[in-house]
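Quick one before lunch.
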Amino acid sequence: MASRGAAAGGSGRSARFHDWFRAGHVKRPAMNSLMSRFTRLLMLALVLATTAWQPALAQDDDDSGPSALRDSETELLFKDIAGPLAKAGGLDPNSVRVVLLNDPEINAFVATGQTVYVQSGLIQAADNVNELQGVIAHELGHVSGGDAIRSASGAKEATGITIATMVLGALAIAAGAGGDAGMGIMAAGQQAATGKFLAFSRATESSADQFAVRALGGAGVSGKGFLDFFKKLQNQEYRLAIYATDSYGRTHPLSSERVQALQQALQKDPAWSKPTDPQLEARFQRVKAKLIGFIDPKHAVQKYPESDQSIPAHYARAYAYHLGGYPDKAESEADALLAKDPHDPFFLELKGQILLEGGKPKDAIAPLREATQRSGNMPLIAAMLGHALVATEDSKNFAEAKQVLKAAVNRDNENPFAWYQLGIIYDREGDQARASLASAERFSLEGNPRQAMQSARTAIAGIKPGTPDCLRAQDIVMAARGELANKKNKRSDDDDRQQGLFGVKSGGKGADKFSQGDLVCRGA
Ligand SMILES: [Zn+2]
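Model of the zinc ion complex:
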């Protein structure tokens, strides 16, 4: 199994195609080109499916760690798994989040706050949804225990690293496009922090386990999967992968006492013998198959040969063929799925995505429109519909695109690609100020404060004072300024990491040259 470093290096498909789940392959423009930004965007919007996504932010990229993978179906599954467990454990189900990271290591962790990160390697290693439920229950135990933000002296330095880097990574987390840099910074901090935590993790692991037992039992979910997963990690098969790097076994030391204590507690619970909800299991197998098709197309077509006509197999092959450049085969796999269920929103999304990225945006509109509607306007799907409408280059479609994209970014403002599409429309309408504001949103989500600040300043010059857009542009300038200052503080003094943690010293040595006049909206 590749190390984090190799996976992060961008040499594999997975790193380069991280955005593939969610949106098109669009070649990233060279930042300093003389061509106007939106002319480039417009041209690039037409370049579908043929070019690889280049990792963003080369200029800021000192460690491109794992990126977040965004997919509506996956996120919905995570939410439906975590919600009942959080509730049973006394957490607010609406404030916890589970984010999928593209990293082959078998790991899951909590960095700060209420977000659980599950790495793609863990999904691949999990045989069933019950194993994932166990892992998530345990991680929620860390959320509940506040382990990541504990202020005990032993943890101070470790959390310092994490939070400091989270400031830089926060906006880029789960952003999909261009999230690499932000996630990289975050992951590097997390890695460092994890090292510190190992020394005193026995107590926190034990209380997270106790939380898991309570949450699983309270939610009526068997602890069998949790135990099976731990036992599996103890097997020879996984040992190399685990102890070589930052995987679950290392971050969550697996002593036999721990496993024994868990087993006793879990078996006592009446939920122990409860069978898994078959629907949830089926959803997990779909998500796992599509993930394998996405991150490892070659393996996917071996694991799911053509003779396998199950839904997960069609799913895996559809993604693998699409990614491998076989649009016709990909389309027929999508059609096979739709033959089983013509109105499944995620099958429709897949069909639309294959058509859109295969250069047929017009044909993609109908399936994406239905997918949007049947999914209850899930923002990532709606954004793809917006993308298809824009990509038709037909101005008759722009009003709908604008409406769909605006609704999408309102409901999920972690989608830089939707802002990018919206910017194209504003530009087409001749509204340069709003085009710049959209651009500022996008850069800010991509973890690129310098470009975000520039675009927001351009927007401010053309936006009416006192309007919500004016306030938004001002916010972006201020946030970007803070991020830049923080980043420089951190880099200039690596031994004094705590400083970066406790926020931005205003006007600190890292702050860009900046005057209050830059914040005055000057549009008519
Ligand atoms: Zn743990």
